[in-house]
């Protein structure tokens, strides 16, 4: 299932005007096994997730934000206390540097809504990773 990859690719399109194939492929490889599970768990419209590839912005619909959290939970990116597990994220996410993790994840660490926290943290990180690749 390419849904999570589509989300991340769209993020790259929104912020940089281009999708870099290595970034696109790495996010797909990482999230592909769990996207369908998270679509089912969150109740997000599967067609919405699949259609993101053709859009130029990421909707902020509640279920979509919670899809990000579900994926983060399943990948071990969220600790039991709700905080980001930056070490695991840096180890698993291609091109995520400690600097990007600190900048993006610390910015949203105090967000009380876990869905918003994951959504915004991911958007920020993908923007920074894409910009890093462009430089």
Automatic annotation (TrEMBL):
SMART domains: PhBP. Residues 1-16 form the signal peptide. Gene3D superfamilies: Pheromone/general odorant binding protein domain (1.10.238.20). GO terms for molecular function: odorant binding. Keywords: Signal. This is Uncharacterized protein. It comes from Aquatica leii. The lineage of its organism: Eukaryota, Metazoa, Ecdysozoa, Arthropoda, Hexapoda.
């Amino acid at each position: 299932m390419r849904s999570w990859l589509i989300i991340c690719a769209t993020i790259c399109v929104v912020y940089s005007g281009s999708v870099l194939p290595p970034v696109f492929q790495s996010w797909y490889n990482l999230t592909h096994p769990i996207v369908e599970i998270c679509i089912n768990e969150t109740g997000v419209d599967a067609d919405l997730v699949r259609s993101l590839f053709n859009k130029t912005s990421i909707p902020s619909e509640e279920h979509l934000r919670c899809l990000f959290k579900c994926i983060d939970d399943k990948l071990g990116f969220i600790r039991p206390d709700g905080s980001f597990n930056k070490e695991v994220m840096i180890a698993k996410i291609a091109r995520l540097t400690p600097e990007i993790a600190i900048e993006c994840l610390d910015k949203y660490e105090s967000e009380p809504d876990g869905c918003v926290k994951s959504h915004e943290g991911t958007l920020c990180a993908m923007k920074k990773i894409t910009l890093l690749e462009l430089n």
